[in-house]
Amino acid sequence: MSSPSSPKSLCSVCGTLCSFSHLPSNVFSIAKLIPAGSLELNLKSDSVPPSFSKIAEDGWPPMHAPTLESLDILLEEFTRPLSFLIRHHFIFTTYYLHSAHVLKLRVYIVPYDLPGCQGRLSYRARSREVLNAGQTYMLMLLPLVSQEPENWHGGQVTPSAFFLDSSMDRRTLPEIYGALPSPSPQSFTTDSDSINRLLDYRDDLGGFGLHSTLLFYQRRSVAMMLQKESGRSPDVPNPLYVPLTDMNGKICHYQPGTTEFLKELYMVTPTQGGVLCEELGTGKTIMILTLILSTIKQLSSPENSFIDSRPVLTPLALRHFPSGDFASIREKFSPRKRASQSQIRVPSFRDILLHLLSSNPDISIPNTTTESGLRKYQRQEHFLELLESLPYDLWRKSNFPFYLHQDDDPTGHRISSRGQGYSAPRLLYLTSATLIVAPANLISQWDREILKHCEVVPRVLIIRSGTRLPSAKDLATLYDIILMPYNRFSDEDKRTDVKKLHSWKLCVCPEFPDSRVPKCTCRPPDVSSLLQVRWKRLVIDEGHVSASLSTRLTPFSKLLSVQHRWIVTGTPTTNLLGLSFGNKSSGGESGVPSHADLDLNVGGDTDVEMDAEVGIVERMDVDFEVEQRVEESVPEPLATESSSSFLTADPDSPSSSPTPLDVETPRIWNRLDRLDVEKLTSMVAHFVGMKLLADQQIVKSHILDALFDNKGPRPGAIQMLTHLMESVMIRHRIDDVEEEVVLPRLDHEHIYLSLSPLAAMSYNAFQASIAINAIDSERQDEDYMFHPRNSDALQTTVKNMSQLLFWSVDDRLYNIDELKKTNLEVLQDVNKRNIPQADIELAKESYMHIYIAAESPLWRSIQSSEDIPYLVHGINPMIFKSWSRLPDNTWVKGGLTTGYVHPDRLIRLRQLIIRNPLISVTKVTYLGEMASAKDLEHRKAYQEMVRRKEGKERKDRKSERSKLPKHIPVKQQDTHNSTGLFNSSKTAASSDTIKEMQQELQASLARLEMEEGVLDPSAIPSPNATQPSALLHSSVIAGVRVGSSASTKLNYIINDVLKYSEQEKFLIFSDSELTLAHIAEALQLVEVKFLRFSTQVPTRIREQTVLTFETSDVYRVFLMELKHGARGLNLVSASRVIFCEPVWQIDVESQAIKRAHRIGQTRPVKVKTLAISNTAEEKMLERRQILKQGGSKIPKLLEETEIRHFIANPRFILVNPDAKDPGLDIPLLRLPPAPQLPASTTNNSIDVTCSSPLKRRVRVMDPQESSGGSPPKKRTVRFAE
Residue 749: helix, strand or coil by DSSP? Predict the structure, then answer.
């Protein structure tokens, strides 16, 4: 074939008449293109080699599209991709005839930013159809382009280097996150002195105002944050592109999502903020406080503008200074009223000083460890004291700094005095304050951490729900830190009409006497004060919430004018957990122990126990609970000739195939990965403010399309994502952290227990209802519980089952009476329908367990009260009968009764006897009958309230009842006749309980101050300790003992608490409020002080409970609702953690453990997860571990196939009435020592001291709400060594 006869009229790239034909030929000069590498084409044996009449700049003929299409290439399916890419100016090729049937191609990529093309090569200029096809073909071509120099020059060797590395990167997003490099800020002469001092590890940071000592990695993180904030970080390449090297050794830039190539990559300015995502428990709070203290005197800067200057103004300068920006701004406000030169005086020295003190304060931090630095610090303090003693100080404070923010082009003047033509400017106060927004339960912790770590306490304002927000002037000038909970911050979105802030009016208020500073009394507009301040920085603690635009928090935060935005979180997304810190423990290298090392001892003895009731205790090191992956066998890199065989395949070769190679299976990123990436990009775009990601179309085309290709992440996609994460995230690799800090050992045990006979009856009755539902519905249609339309009922059923495994009752007896009536009918129907024999046997077994429960009077009577009954020994029969709700199934030995009594009755009986030790049996019996009658009245009233509520709900959803699956008790157990929960919540939030807790808080704080030498011991209130009466030995219940409850989990918890609580504190987590209520009642019964953190306790009181637990030795147990207590709290005074049920979500469980296992913990931490053997709980733990070891994502619980199958196929627990419960055995009354003989010497003094296993802690003041007014004075707090 001949070459085109008139090359001048044809495009020099594609060889056809196209839209680029009119351009000069040098536009597509090879020197301007990207020499990617070479390809090899095999021609068919009868193919005619191409002829040519023109030579390209590289000495080879050009391979135009018509020429390529005329060739008979061995692999015909590759002709179209090459031709398309050439025709549409994605590539340019030249060729060399190596032999009669072998062509060598040089591939030159046409960059999208090629000059002279009038922008028609850009991503946005090309049609969607061309781009889509071009991306597909480029992804086929680029991994095959060889960069062997010999092939480039026409030789033929097996390629080993390729232009685009297509090797599989099978890392998961958490693995990418964990491999991000640690921050490495550099010390430069142009950087602030604070950065240099932080990076000089010999400097102890004297003058920063810190009491605590920063670790080296913490200093590096703060230095990196300061470097980002300073704006001195150099511009960085666009992180959405990855660098590639061409044949000339030059760098070009490739976008994996769009396959776009650029020769010159435009730079982007890094964000002056980011995500502080250090591992949980590594001290993110002190890092933020150090950042604040480093810039505590620095005013925020006006927002950058390319169209106008935005000078820092003060009321004095704007009104009186005669020249420069001040005069021009005044002229814009009053163009028709120009002041004469006689009206504007030259500012006095005092005026200039007042202006500079406000607009340009001294921001230096003297190094007080040096003599010169100490002298400078003393001079600064002396100057401030002197200034405050002069009348100038009031003028200075009224001369607040601000700037005028104008949204449109401010050049020129207004067209009229009415302000038409240009919008009015908006006044924003400049400040050095940091606004910190945190979960409500962390506000007091932030306040405590400030006092703990800061030697000179900053001026802190806490804005709580119901607290009035001060004026913008006060916020900007009177405080260093403003603390706000999420909900209070979001409530400010009700006053966001920013248009009201734009005004052409200047303040005309009179001036202070003998001064030219205005005494401004202007009324601020009805707009949130937060929107009238240019904040130094905004910090969102637990900031992963900022990824959601559906909340009010992020949209409102975008309205704020903020110089630096920081997200603080240990878990940026659901699967980026940040939970590895602590794997390396002080107890030695962690690892999964062998079976020989497993601790099977439940009771604490040295012998191994395998009890029928308790089961086997499975002991694991922390590494068993931190994600592990099974190393996979990665194939060796495939022979390089396979890469070229795509184009040079021999038809006679058995391996001839159009597929390039038998590569290892790529890892396809799934829906959960996509949610994580979308959360990250949303967080960075909408909160941190990376404008690059503000366009959702760019996020999709450049990031999501590259990562979520149906064949796996595209080449370069993971490298791009890594660059993006590096640009905004500050975190240290865990190895770097653990070089400095090793936490105490963490042991996590799974405790497998059996159900008590009474609980097993309930469980089997519940399982029977599920089995009969499956059989009767034939596992199809809407009657079947697992039908998609019954998803809500299924969720409730699973939650009820979980509650039942701790303890639960049902006043409808789990439908057993109804099921008994239909026994014969169902079995006959099953036989008629030819149901499988396995289901027939399952039905028979189900009815057997239904009859076992139905014929137990004790079990039936227990269902009438949701409290857990306890087996009581040695109680008088008359007292038992009147005080127990369960008179059945009792036995008498030696005239005394053994039987079940509920804990609320036992507590009230004990209180009665303590008040009246010698009360008679008859009187106690009478009072028990009275108590029973009163309880019955309360119960009826409560049940009536529940019925009314249910009736109202039924009216709202009349048809819902008919859609419920047959036979299944789907009513949620937590709210079903739960008078125990109702009473427990009243107790937890009662005024007496709160008052007692607050009194103990004040006393514990006072004791800490006494230990520090701050407080006189005589000022400490004496505890209200009373000695039990010796008459209790003669009381009617002196010998009564309390045995096991009907809940084996509760027995285990109480035994553990009684065994260890004198020396260690406990955190007990549950997802159920009812479970926590049962534990609270048990702790009352055994007289162990506890606190609760749940929705039943008001937010403000929850904060105080955290502070009390951390500072008081009296409260030994903290009951925590998992969804509220698992994040953010610092509870290092506890060293034992118990989960009442398995937690399916790994991040939630690990977050909860991190409340205790973090920096500041000095004891080994013991974690126990309780599970019932042979139930879904055991299956949960088994499946979760298998998924973790296999590197699989953890799906939702009911989406996990094996767990769903386990629940859908009920299994029963054998009831062994003779099984012994190794549970409780404690006296109901704690009797005082036996009375001594009169002749003996007794010591009547009462020892009210309590030995503490804790270190002395800092004095923390209860935060006071403020509504403005005078600024709080800085105070110095002494800390214990």
Answer: strand
CA distances 1083 to 641, 766, 796, 1059, Å, are 73, 29, 28, 13
Mean pLDDT of 710-738: 91
For residues 997, 999, 1004 and 1007, what is the CA-based torsion angle, rounded to 10 degrees?
Answer: -170
Answer left, alpha or beta for residue 374, where phi above 0 means left and psi between -120 and 50 means alpha.
alpha
**Cα 1281 to Cα 1270: distance, rounded to the nearest angstrom:** 33
296 within 8 A of 527, measured Cβ to Cβ: no
Q: Which of 68, 57, 65, 67 is nearest to 35 (CA)?
A: 57
For residue 1137, give Cα distances in angstroms to 792, 1045, 1151. Answer: 32, 22, 12
Closest-CA residue to 275 (of 700, 693, 564, 698)? 564
Instruction: Kindly write down the DSSP assignment for every residue of 571-607, as one continuous string.
Output: -SSSS-----TTSSBTTB---PPPGGG----SSSSSS
C-alpha–C-alpha distance, residues 400 and 738, integer Å? 46
Q: Work out the percent of the chain whose per-residue pLDDT is above 90.
A: 29
Q: Is the pLDDT of residue 167 over 90?
A: no
| Count of residues making up the chain | 1281
Three-class SS state of 146? strand
Give the residue among 399, 323, 327 at the shortest CA–CA distance from 361. 399
State how far the alpha carbon of 813 is from the alpha carbons of 725, 757, 886, 1032, 1197, in Å. 55, 16, 16, 41, 27
C-alpha 1270/C-alpha 1272 separation (Å) is 6
- In angstroms, rounded to a whole number, what is the distance separating the alpha carbons of residues 816 and 809? 13
Q: In a 3-state reduction of DSSP, which class is residue 1094?
A: coil
- Distance (Å, rounded) from C-alpha 496 to C-alpha 526? 9
| Start-to-end Cα distance in the chain | 91
Close Cβ partners of 951 (under 8 Å, ≥ 6 residues apart): none
- Number of C-beta neighbours around residue 1183 at 10 A: 19
Q: Which long-range contacts (CB under 8 A, 24 or more apart) does 517-523 make?
A: 517/315, 517/316, 517/354, 517/395, 517/398, 517/399, 518/315, 518/316, 518/319, 518/398, 519/398, 520/315, 520/398
Q: Is the pLDDT score of 1099 beyond 60? A: yes
Q: What angle do CA 815, 819, 823 make, to 5 degrees?
A: 170
Q: Is the pLDDT of residue 473 over 80?
A: yes
Task: Give the Å distances, CA to CA, from 1260 to 284, 448, 450, 1266.
Answer: 20, 6, 9, 17
Q: In angstroms, how far is CA 297 from the centroid of its own chain?
A: 32
- Residue holding tokens 């937890």? 988
705 alpha carbon, distance to own chain's centre: 26
What would the two tokens of residue 900 be? 């079940």
For CA atoms 603, 609, 610, 612, the dihedral sign is negative
pLDDT at 629 over 70: no
- Which burial class, exposed, middle or buried, applies to 540 when counting CB atoms under 10 A from its CB (0-12, 13-18, 19+)? buried
**Average of per-residue pLDDT across 633-656:** 37
Which two structure tokens, joined as six digits, stand for 1093? Answer: 């953190």
| Percent of the chain that is helix, strand, coil (3-state, to 5) | 40, 15, 45
Residue 430: helix, strand or coil by DSSP?
A: strand
